[in-house]
Amino acid sequence: MLNPHLIEFPKMGNPEIGYISVVEQNTLVPFEVKRLFWTYYTPESIVRGRHAHHKTEQVLIAVAGRITVTTELSDGTIQIFRLENPNVGLYVPPHAWHTMQYSHAAVQLVLASDVYNEDDYIRSYTDFKEIWQSK
Fold this sequence. Notes:
single chain, 135 residues, mainly beta, Jelly Rolls, 5-stranded antiparallel β-sheet, 12 strands
């Protein structure tokens, strides 16, 4: 099973005309994208996320602003990622508890491996530790 890691997407262009980055199916993102969503205007004092998934994989991209993502695996491994380049995404596997804090102007794009299903969410930290330590 993959652990949280950064993915650098192609960055084409130059400062005079701007840039474009592209995600194509079956390249760089290790799953089929079935859902896209984005978050924005999140107050800097708010910590979002605070969950893990049973099955859903995600790639988080700060298309604007800065997002600090903290991931924790059931073995206690904690990683902190600072997303602030729109051509860099963070792969978050289903077994990673994760939280996000945003700069006020941050816009986060999320590529998800599955459609929304509340039953896929592990919202209790205690449950997260119990479920993933037993696997």
